[in-house]
Amino acid sequence: MTATLTHTPAEQALIDALDGATGWQAQLREATLTQGLPTRRHELWKWSDLRRAANDVTAPGRMIVTGLDTPISDGARIELDVTASAGASAADAELVIPAGASVTLIERYSAEAAALGNWHLKITLQDGARLDRIILAADKPDSAFIASSEIALAPNARLHQRALDFGGRLSRIETHVTHPGEGAEVDLGGVYLLEGGHHADSTSVVHHTGPGGVTKQLVKGAAAAKGHGVFQGKFIVDRAAQQTDARMTHRAMMLDDRAEIDAKPELEIYADDVQCAHGNALGALDETALFYMRQRGIPAVRARALLIESFLAEPLDAIADETLREDFKVQLRTRLEALS
Amino acid sequence: MLKIDNLHCQVETQDGEEKPILKGLSLDVPAGEVHAIMGPNGSGKSTLSYVLTGRDGYEVTQGSMVFEGEDLSELEPEERAAAGLYLSFQYPVEIPGVPTITFLKEALNAQRTARGEDEVTAPEFMKLIREKAKQLGVSMDMLKRPVNVGFSGGEKKRMEILQALVLEPKFMILDETDSGLDIDALKTVSEGVNALRAPERGMLVITHYQRLLDHITPDVVHIMANGKIVKSGGPELARELEAEGYDKYLGEAA
Question: Which chain B residue's Cα is nearest to A293?
Fold first, then answer.
């Protein structure tokens, strides 16, 4: 006998929305039914209280995903627009990147006010496949939006992921990677920039299961007063994954004393011949540089924006597609100007 | 052009206390003149450069500083820059991620906008910066690098002067511009400064040693000790100091 859980209106709405669902959505429904939405009591959600963030959700909503009909072949460019209406909703999809193919995947997330959106992507990279995954999570200020992915690589595959998140009431981008080593490479990068009241959570687990894997991760963020950034990064290195080379870095800037940034970088290593490292640094804006710029005539607001932009831009510099890279930087700049 | 009268300034120390540094400093630099301020370490030379340019934490408690009829203490640092005040920093600041060219173009156009002038276009700016870089022997490659990042002490000072050549300020404050320079760099930098000497431009050269003044000949030399000017004279005063040291002025100030 299990005790019957009393569901919040948002939990009930999500359960109702997923009535009759199959696959991942059925799992989500079951988890919500038995455990409710995650709260701070769950170790993996201790800085991101989803139940609380969804407290204005009362009815089922809809999640619309466009672009899934794009054929996946070498050189393909898949653009997925994922939109959550008000209310509780979920959607998922599965992509297989064929052996040797090189594919660009662009995901744009948006959500209406009072939405609880759950988006899940399962991606398989076959031998020698290459995926550039680029996520823009920009337009969901008054909602809770969770994007999770499970990505499995074959030997010699290469995953390059970049996410830009401007947060929301609660925004979480969760990435789970299975890394077989054997010539496979993973590069996870992200940027978050948060105004007051916004929350962004970058959570990832890279599980190294075979020898000689290379993993890089660089996440940079900045939060204004009452903005809340969360970074949870975990590298697991199995005993079989000797000679793994894995490096994780999170660096963030508190733009105000009232900003909050929580970070938990973790290494879990069972192999003895590996090179693994993590670094985490929190700082403030360099006041000396700010004065230097103002002394040259650059107004304080602009100088701040330039300094924050130059700090945050680094992960985005590695976006291979020049148009996208510039587009992301313009988004960042626009957001920074609005922030100041 | 720059009139400082009985200026008192206090600086917030790291433990949050206010420490008086300038204690009644008066100075008048007319347009077209180069004045040198010499003084021992701790006499308040750098504080003077920061309070004139408006750095946070440098508070005027008494007296006035007026630039071309405008009360500087009323202006933000960027407004002082647009009014024509330029500080060549003793320790130029590194700004990772911002290319020097971008930085300078931003600065020039921000100043021009503040003065109600048209912005310079990208081609105009490139022409201007090429010409000035050539004058100082700075490569375009260096200008593409982030501001001051990875530059040697001498290169940083050279870039400070290059920025002045591009921004063409009305008044320059050179704070220990000779520190960290070898003799060749000192020559190049001095030539850059001398090229900026003009009837409508004033300069304040802050230095500990006389050697910079062999290359940039001042019209007036002031000796500063314990937060004020204790003696003023011609260029010969600098040589006298070099020979005799600051000791007797420290005595007078105390």
Answer: B107
pLDDT one-digit tens code per residue, B168-193 = 999 999 999 988 888 888 888 899 89
Question: How many structural domains compose chain A?
Answer: 1
Please name the residue of chain B whose CA is at the shortest distance from the CA of residue A291.
B55
**Beta strands across the sheet bearing B58-67:** B18-29, B2-12, B58-67, B70-71
Residue A28 lies in a domain: no
Distance of CA A148 to the CA centre of its chain: 8
CB contact under 8 A, A294 and B114: no
Inspect the interface and report whether the beta carbons of A292 and B77 lie closer than 8 Å. no
Query: Which residues of A are less than 8 Å from B107 in CB distance?
Result: 293, 296-298
Taking all residues of chain A, what is their mean pLDDT, rounded to a whole number?
95
Q: What is the pLDDT averaged over residues B62-85?
A: 96
Task: Judge: B107–A297 Cβ closer than 8 Å, yes or no.
Answer: yes
**Residue A2: band (very low, low, confident or very high) from pLDDT cuts 50, 70, 90:** low
List the domain range (segments joined by +) for residue A63: 39-286
Task: From B177, B134, B135, B130, select the one nearest B156 (Cα to Cα).
Answer: B177
CA distance B43 to B57: 18
**Range of lowest pLDDT (A154-158, A190-194, B247-251):** B247-251
Which among B92, B95, B110 has CB closest to A297? B110
Is A72 part of a structural domain of the chain?
A: yes
Classify residue A30: in a domain, yes or no.
Answer: no
pLDDT tens string B33-63: 999 999 888 889 999 999 999 999 999 999 9
CB atoms within 10 A of CB B155: 17
Q: How many CB pairs under 8 A join A and B?
A: 75
pLDDT per residue as tens digits for the range A16-31: 999 999 999 999 999 9
Rounded to an integer, what distance in angstroms lies between the CA atom of residue B199 and that of residue B196?
10
Q: Which of A287, A288, A297 sits opposite B81 (nearest CB)?
A: A297
Residue B104 has pLDDT above 90, yes or no: yes
Domain B2-253 has CATH 3.30.70.1450: no
Q: Would A86 be classed as within a structural domain?
A: yes
Are B157 and B188 spatial neighbours (Cβ–Cβ below 8 Å)? no
Q: How far is CA A300 from CA A195, A318, A331, B78, B201, in A?
A: 18, 29, 20, 7, 26
A300 to chain B nearest CA, in Å? 7
Instruction: Name every chain B residue with its beta carbon within 8 A of the beta carbon of A303.
Output: 78
- Asked if B100 has any chain A CB less than 8 Å from its own CB, the reply is no
